[in-house]
Every structure is written in C-alpha cells, then in structure tokens.
Request: fold
Amino acid sequence: MRIPGSSSAVTALSAESVRLDVSASNVANVSTDGYRAMRVTNEATAGGGVRARIDEPATPAGQLLTGDDGRDRVLSNVDLGAEVVTQISAQHAFEANLAVLRTGDEMLKALIDSKL
Reply:
C-alpha cells in the first residue's frame, strides 16, 4: 500500500538535499577566485513529485581587483547572506516533508491497527 503524498515528499527530500549540497559548495568556494555560485531550481515532475535542476548562473563572477603584486583577480560572486537564507529555507522544507512522511506512516499504522 502506498501512503498518499509519500512519493512527493520523498522526491522533495531529495531535491532539498541537492539544494543544501549546492549551497554548501558555494560557501566552500566563497574565497575561490573566479568562482560562480550555482543555483538550484525545483521542477514539478509528471508523477507529482519534484526534481532539482542545478543552474549555472548567467551572471559573471564577482568584482575585479588588482592585487599588491599587480595581478588582476576576479573574486567569487557568492553572497553568504543569500546562502544562509537558502540553507535555512531548505532545512525547513526538509523538516516539513519529513513531517508528511511521519504523518503518512502514523495513518497507515492506525489503519492496520484498526483492521486487527
């Protein structure tokens, strides 16, 4: 027996996991010259779930600076504030989808217990 909403919740958990991974990669590369922050877009699937699509931004890397040695450096375009918001949002979405799975599990348990 399939729990209603479980496939959507499972695919959403996977999509939010991808979003957290991409955000963590962006944060890890905040000091990498020329790094361009990636973004994740969630798309609905035909079966009622979601999938994560990783997008390379069209925006260029960050600001051009000339170092003390006279060499030009292109800074990353990672916005740490935006990454914190992304991670908090993904965490809340992850928790909400876990609650959907737990509720479905409790409903199935109640149904089985009522039949015994």
Q: What stands out?
A: DSSP finds two helices and four strands in the chain. Residues 1 and 108 are 9 Å apart (CA to CA). Residues 80-115 form the longest helix (36 residues). Helices lie at 6-28, 80-115.
